[in-house]
Specification:
The chain has helices spanning about 1-20, 30-45, 45-60, 65-85, 95-120, 125-135, 135-155, 160-185, 190-215, 220-230. By secondary structure, it is an all-alpha fold. Helix 1 (about 1-20) packs antiparallel against helix 5 and helix 3 packs antiparallel against helix 4 (about 65-85).
Amino acid sequence: MLWSVLAAALAPGLALLAYFYWKDRYDAEPLPMVAKLFLTGVLIVLPAMILQRGLTLWLGESPFVFSFVISSGVEELLKFFVLYHMIFNHTEFDEPYDGIVYATAVSLGFATLENVLYSFLQPVSFGSLMIRALLPVPGHALFGVFMGYSMGRAKFSTGRQVRYHLGLALLLPVLWHGLYDYMMVSVPTGWIWVAVPFMFVLWFRGIRRVNRANAVSPFRLLKREEEINS
């Protein structure tokens, strides 16, 4: 039973990480680097919990403050901090889609440990694990897509556009994550009817960013030439 619960808690995050990794059409990132970012996402759960506890004692727990400051604000800021300082200027960050790969790795590392803690610190059922596999964990992945897409645009921009896209890399995940949390705490009954359409919107917008990032890869033409010559 213990191992089955652990596997159920780990599977969604690892499966989503593999999905976004394989969506890199032209120049796959080194697995050790992706694993490093994933594990870093795991490690920032503890400081996030400490900061969230302190802010809760200081600011209270109103739905708006909890959703946009204590929850999404703290978590997305830590993910952004890690991503910017570990990968933004790294030589492996050599195409726009790389931002999505590394941002989803950090986000899913965070979400996976969060899922494991949820599974072991309170009684869970198969149904609750399924709901988490379909809602919170993919939510973190898609917030990572928004962050990584904007960071990819910042990486290959110049002048003021760099700061503009870096700002969006933090602002957009905070807003989407905060909106998701606000819906969860503000709709005590029937929340599933709000959460499912919301997730469809997130997936639609996220996949559009995935396709756009791949479409502007500098390796796209090189791969096409290789296919023509082979």
